[in-house]
Design a protein that fits this description.
- This protein is an alpha+beta fold.
- Helix content is about 15%, strand content about 35%.
- It contains one helix and six strands, in the order ββαββββ.
- It is globular and about 30 Å long.
- The relative contact order is 0.19.
Length: about 90
Amino acid sequence: MSQQTLVVRRLDRPGTPYARAATIDAATILAARGAAAAPGALFEILESDTSRVRLRVRAESPRNILVQQPQSDSGDAWPDPPPWQPLPGRF
């Protein structure tokens, strides 16, 4: 069985992958660095085979990185979308 490749993409440029990674940790670091360099931009980490979104990353400022883990049962359905949580560490 081959290892799943994760794709990091900016939502305002969905057709152009920002980066690729083999693990969620590596993909999260790449997305956090991209978000820190472009506060306000939204990045998604998704599985290349299924296009399932694993994590969303955004920065309110270069030091304040937030992540959102979509819930498979409710997606982004309102009125209760998944919460944004601070990402610990420095990128």
